[in-house]
Specification:
This protein has 132 residues and is mainly beta. The protein is built from no helices and 9 strands. 0% of the residues lie in helices and 47% in strands.
């Protein structure tokens, strides 16, 4: 698994990311990472992109370990847009215009964002970060 972190750290922000993944892809957007040497779903918030996750409640559209999703949308084989907002302890995810997560959690207050690649074909374009 590889992750590419931002150089800057963010606390409150909006991010818009366009992505294309294959049906078997395992990817995600890490946020407020607390350890640059260990970027994982236990050291960051993760907006998941994983259509074939064995436990679909934290698959595509979910915030892993924080905000489950049901039913899980499918992202494979097409261009998608994630719009993510983090303000204070509130995190919201909007996938292709539909809100998929709205959670309150204060574990991670600030840190870099990261683009994750673990399996399949993953393409990112137009990554836009706006500090709030």
């Amino acid at each position: 698994m590889r992750s590419i972190p931002t150089r800057n750290s963010y606390s409150d922000f909006q991010v818009r990311i366009e992505f294309w993944v294959s049906h078997d892809a395992n990817s995600g957007i890490y946020m407020r990472c607390s350890d640059m040497n260990k970027i994982l779903d236990t050291t960051c918030y993760e907006a998941n992109i994983f259509d074939e996750r064995k436990d679909p409640k934290f698959g595509t559209g979910a915030i892993v370990h924080i905000s489950p999703i049901s039913p899980m949308p499918k992202a494979g084989g097409k261009w998608n847009v994630y719009e993510i907002t983090a303000k204070g302890d509130r995190l919201t995810l909007v996938l292709n215009g539909v809100q998929t997560a709205d959670a309150h959690d204060g574990k991670f207050k600030s840190g870099p964002l990261g683009l994750q690649y673990a399996a399949g074909v993953v393409k990112f374009r137009k990554v836009q970060i706006k500090p709030l």
